[in-house]
Amino acid sequence: MRIDVGKVSDRLGLFLGAAIFLFGFLKLFDPFYSWYEVQVANSGLPAPSFVMGIAGEIGTGLALLGSFFARRRLICATRSPRSPACR
Fold it and tell me: Is the pTM of this model over 0.90?
């Protein structure tokens, strides 16, 4: 049995992107907002770390999701447009 590394990588990127985005998005609402706020406050990090942490998590999730959904366009941009994958 052969494992297709490309498919595994695609599915893993989709799952991780969705999970990271979802956890970042949930931190905008209570009770996750309060829990995360207490975590940052107890860690001794400055106040902007709270917003930057949420933005970083949402941004990372969107980047992974974007790479999954734009994969075909990226392949066509780097290869010949006449490639079978671009049709």
Answer: no
